[in-house]
Automatic annotation (TrEMBL):
<dbReference type="InterPro" id="IPR045759">
    <property type="entry name" value="Ap4A_phos1/2_N"/>
</dbReference>
<dbReference type="InterPro" id="IPR009163">
    <property type="entry name" value="Ap4A_phos1/2"/>
</dbReference>
<keyword id="KW-0548">Nucleotidyltransferase</keyword>
<dbReference type="InterPro" id="IPR043171">
    <property type="entry name" value="Ap4A_phos1/2-like"/>
</dbReference>
<keyword id="KW-0808">Transferase</keyword>
<dbReference type="Pfam" id="PF09830">
    <property type="entry name" value="ATP_transf"/>
</dbReference>
<dbReference type="InterPro" id="IPR036265">
    <property type="entry name" value="HIT-like_sf"/>
</dbReference>
<dbReference type="Pfam" id="PF19327">
    <property type="entry name" value="Ap4A_phos_N"/>
</dbReference>
<dbReference type="GO" id="GO:0009117">
    <property type="term" value="P:nucleotide metabolic process"/>
</dbReference>
<dbReference type="GO" id="GO:0005524">
    <property type="term" value="F:ATP binding"/>
</dbReference>
<dbReference type="GO" id="GO:0003877">
    <property type="term" value="F:ATP:ADP adenylyltransferase activity"/>
</dbReference>
<dbReference type="InterPro" id="IPR019200">
    <property type="entry name" value="ATP_adenylylTrfase_C"/>
</dbReference>
<protein>
    <submittedName>
        <fullName>ATP adenylyltransferase domain-containing protein</fullName>
    </submittedName>
</protein>
<feature type="domain" description="ATP adenylyltransferase C-terminal">
    <location>
        <begin position="190"/>
        <end position="318"/>
    </location>
</feature>
<feature type="domain" description="Ap4A phosphorylase 1/2 N-terminal">
    <location>
        <begin position="7"/>
        <end position="169"/>
    </location>
</feature>
Length: 321
């Protein structure tokens, strides 16, 4: 018997908005406001955000030797819960939010973040995107991203896909600012790192959506390792590479990763300035955004946007490789 289709609540934007407001009032969500500027990465306008308060964010459990890491998605706090989404997934607020109304699609049972995504993961993600597109109040829709593997920016072992309302990602930018989602930009192929993408639609079937993902994953594996996967070897188990995935209402993108980030240096004549920090990047890089926590990093990258370009050129497969 075929399983029932996954459907998101029709009023999902309103549910997320109300849950976030209530959880923030009750202290269940920590929101970290940011400053923002746009830097030029070639022809790409790239958001750089700065949140000094993030330096005080609690470190995730599990750093002490022999200590069992806490799984935040095993028993999500009731006040962060948003909605059930079919028998295998649910929606929960991100407890540490840089973008307001940041929420997460998590598997009910433990599934590894390092595993190849299955059909239900992608179907549930598209259901959320569809719910935002159908809302009259959220015309910008959702940006969904996945961090898979040690070099992707992943921070939790329990499988989850993150969802950001694009309208909230614009906050702080001047009216008429040129920024738009990199994943859907005509300049995506000008990024310093290689990406692989296909067009999808809100009516794409779960089977065809998963097939598109596997095609992109195979291409990313080939680019990252130089070796093609054997036929039929991509559909389950541990992923062969680190990568980020992004999904919007009309685009699916996969970016192979080789490093989580790179050094930020104070600008100096001839290069080689003092190291002032380290820029770490997750799947929001496919939205065209980056985040720093230290004043020295913020100042250095604004003064020398080439520093951001250099880090972006190291995190994945260089475009010309």
């Amino acid at each position: 018997m075929s399983r029932a289709a996954i459907k998101a609540p029709a009023q999902l934007p309103e549910l997320v908005r109300a849950a976030f407001a209530k959880a923030r009032t009750e202290g269940e969500v920590q929101y970290f406001p940011t400053k923002v500027t746009l830097l030029s990465v070639g022809s790409i306008p790239f958001q750089l955000r700065f949140s000094p308060a993030l330096a005080n964010k609690p470190q995730r459990a599990g750093h002490a030797p022999r200590e069992q890491p806490v799984d935040p998605f095993a028993y999500p706090p009731r006040r962060l819960f948003v909605a059930d989404l079919g028998p295998s997934h649910y929606l929960v607020l991100n407890k540490f939010a840089v973008v307001p109304e940041h929420f997460i699609l998590a598997t009910r049972e433990f599934r590894p973040q390092t595993g190849v995504l299955d059909e239900a993961d992608l179907e549930a993600t598209l259901a959320c995107i569809r719910a935002y597109r159908d809302s009259r109040e959220d015309g910008d829709g959702l940006f969904a991203f996945f961090n898979g593997g040690e070099h992707s920016g992943a921070s939790q072992p329990h499988r989850h896909i993150q969802l950001l309302p694009v309208a909230r990602m614009r906050e702080g930018l001047d009216d008429g600012a040129s920024w738009s989602l990199l994943a859907t930009s005509p300049h995506l192929d000008k990024a310093p790192f290689a990406t692989f993408s296909e067009k999808i639609s809100q009516s794409t079937s779960p089977r065809h959506l998963h097939a598109a993902y596997l095609r992109l994953y195979r291409q990313a594996c080939h680019a990252a390792t130089g070796t093609a996967l054997p036929a039929g070897d991509e559909g389950e188990g541990e992923a062969r590479i680190s990568y980020n995935l992004a999904m919007t209402e009309d685009t699916l993108v996969v970016c192979p990763r080789r490093a989580e980030g790179g050094e930020v240096r104070r600008p100096a004549e001839g290069g080689g300035g003092e190291v002032v920090g380290r820029l770490a990047l997750n799947g929001t890089v496919l939205a065209g955004t980056a985040l720093v926590r230290k004043q020295e990093e913020w100042d250095a990258l604004r003064e020398d946007p080439g520093g951001l370009v250099r880090v972006l050129g190291r995190i994945g497969v260089p475009r010309g490789e």
